[in-house]
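TL;DR need structure tokens for one chain.
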Amino acid sequence: MRKEDLEDIEVALVLDAIHKRYGHDFRNYSRVSVKRRLRSALAKTKYSKISEMIYPLLHDELFFETLLYDLSITVTEMFRDPEFFKALREQVIPLLKTHPFIRIWHAGCATGEEVYSLAILLKEEGFYERATIFATDFNDVALARAKEGIYPIDRMKDYTANYQRSGGTGSFSQYYTTGYDSAILEPSLGKNIAFANHNLVTDGIFSEVHLILCRNVLIYFNKALQNRVLKLFRDSLAHGGVLALGSKEGLHFSEVNDDFKSLSPRWKIFKKTSS
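>> reply
TL;DR here they are.
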């Protein structure tokens, strides 16, 4: 048997162990992505094979939590893809402003940088007080960091540039204070954000939301799981609600394609047209 085939068996056994022991289901994630992340996690341990992680995985919850973080970590930053946030300002904000109260679901929020970016955008557009943002992820460690709203000070230069390119109307420095090599976001930004654990693979809908953001998450799922999550989003959105995906994702060939129209082909922003 080829080495690659043996590794595939090892990966399947690890994912099955995670599901049976802890209830987290990665079995319908892209195997290429999962395999890459397990290899990365393996390199940080004393083990030489992926299968050798099964015993500590089953018997050491701390080991599992560390592995879970490796499996779920995503690339994120404040105002990531500034032109996307500019498209939100120009095409989506006018739609949201028509509602007396706005419900937003940010799925797969990771460590929170993009959630706070959205809060800043809403504040500058004058209706953050009317909004509630539900920021969810299945990783409790990432959620804890998101709730803190504290980020490395050396990232602020890049974040400031992103903010300016996104159409920011003020000075980015007004949104944080500094201390101990960290940038501490203004507490007012988190006032209307509700962080919560939610697993897109197993959990249900958020009803009647006006905007869903889930960027660069679906690319890690296989086709069946993508369809499951897209139907979850469709059923969570109010009529006329907006779905924003990652630039490499879309609805083409999905089971919900006919339920939406495109607002921004480049940035994969869609408006729900079905009732």
